[in-house]
Write a structure and sequence with these properties.
It is built from two helices and ten strands. With about 140 residues, it is mostly beta strands. The protein has a ten-stranded mixed sheet, with helices on one face. A hairpin with a 5-residue loop joins strand 2 and strand 3.
Length: about 140
C-alpha cells in the first residue's frame, strides 16, 4: 500500500491542443503512471489550465495559445491523450471548469514540480491514526 502525504503538481512544458471539424478539442500530453480518477480541467480563461488528474497529481498547462483560449473557454469536455513518445498510452474525456483564477499552492522543488502539503487532519486520516497523544510542556 502506497502512502501519499502530499499532492504532486507537474508542469507540462510541451503540449498540443488539437481541434477537429466539430469544434472538439484534444490535449496531447506526456503519459503519467497510473490511471486518472475523476479528472477535471480547470481553465482561467487566459493562458493557464490545470489538469487535476487524480487526488494527488495535477498537471499545469501554461502559455496556452490565445486563439485556443476562446475555444477552450466554450468547451464543456476535452479529450486528454497521454503519449509515451509517439505511442498513445491512454485517452479519456475530461470536463472543463472555467475558474476565475488557478491557485497553485505549494513548494516548488524543481523547475516543473510543486508539492502541496496536506492539512494535519488530512495527513492523520491518510496515516490511519486511531489515537493521538499530546505531550510536552505548554
Amino acid at each position: 500500500m502506497e502512502n501519499q502525504y502530499y499532492t504532486l503538481m507537474e508542469k507540462q512544458d510541451f503540449f498540443e491542443i488539437i481541434e477537429n471539424k466539430y469544434g472538439e478539442l484534444a490535449v496531447f500530453i506526456d503519459a503519467r503512471d497510473g490511471n486518472p480518477s475523476e479528472p477535471v480541467l480547470q481553465f482561467d480563461g487566459k493562458k493557464t489550465a490545470l489538469l487535476c488528474r487524480d487526488e494527488r497529481r495535477s498537471i499545469i498547462l501554461d502559455n496556452i495559445d490565445a486563439e485556443t483560449c476562446n475555444v477552450l473557454a466554450e468547451s464543456e469536455v476535452v479529450m486528454i491523450v497521454e503519449l509515451k513518445a509517439e505511442m498513445v498510452e491512454r485517452v479519456y474525456a475530461v470536463p472543463v471548469e472555467n475558474v476565475e483564477e488557478i491557485i497553485l499552492n505549494g513548494r516548488r522543488t524543481r523547475a516543473d514540480e510543486l508539492f502541496k502539503a496536506k492539512s494535519k487532519d488530512e495527513l492523520l486520516k491518510s496515516f490511519g491514526a486511531i489515537k493521538v497523544w499530546t505531550s510536552g510542556e505548554k
